[in-house]
Amino acid sequence: MSMKLDLAIDGMHCGSCVRRVTVALQKVEGVEPEALKVEIGSASVNFDAEKATLQEIVDAVNRLGFTAHAI
Predict the structure, then answer these.
(1) pTM (global) more than 0.85
(2) Which terminus of the chain has a lower count of CB atoms within 10 Å, N or C?
(3) CATH number of the domain that 26 lies in?
């Protein structure tokens, strides 16, 4: 089942941050890369809820040193 998740991400400040978050989210199994949108301070993620959880997606961002939370 496809779900949409909007994240607020603290600590991002440049294009390099956007790229790092984008790459990390694309590596999460179940994330739909064609529907992934990352900007400084936020991300919109469509994912297959049978393959990924909200926590796995948030953790992928937090492991980079940012603080992500669902909005």
Answers:
(1) yes
(2) N
(3) 3.30.70.100
